[in-house]
Amino acid sequence: MNIITMELITIIVLMAVYDDLLRYKISNKIIAFGVMITAVYFGIYLLYGIVIKKDFLSSIDIWIKDSILGLLAGFFGMFMMYVFKAVGAGDVKLMGVIGLLGGIELVKYVLLYSLISGGILGILGMVLKRCENMSKYGMNVHIMHYSLAIAAGVVLGMLKVCWQEVVLFE
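The structure corresponding to this sequence follows.
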C-alpha cells in the first residue's frame, strides 16, 4: 500500500466522521466524492503505468480484481451488520469505498478492527452514559457514531498492512 492511497482513504474517512458527528449520517456526496477520487487516482495510475512502465499492463488485472474484491468484501461485510440494524447505510457505503481504494488486504483488517473498536466504544458509551437512547422496534437502544469505529479500524488496518509489508521486505 502506498502513501497516496493511505492519504486518500484518510481524507475520505475524516470527512465521513465529521459529517457523522454533525448529523448522525454520512452523506452520499462524501461517498460519491470517494468513488470519484478513486476513479481519478486509478486513471492517473493507469496512465502513468502505460506511459512510463511498459510491463505495467500485465499486473493491472490483479490490481483491478483486488479493488473489486475489496469493494465487495467491505460492502457486504458491513451490510450484514446493517441487516441487524447495528450500523447505518452510510457506514456500509463508506466501507465499500475503503475497500475499493485500499483493496481486499486492507478492508479485511479494517472490518475486524472496526468491529472490535465499535464494541469497545459502545461499552464505554454505555458505562459513561455518552450514548443517546432511542426507541426502535419497541426497545430502547443506544446509538453511537460508528464512523469513529471505522476510523479507528482504518488506522489499525493501515498499521497492520504497513507492518506486514515492512516485515516481508526485510
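The two ends are 16 Å apart (CA to CA).
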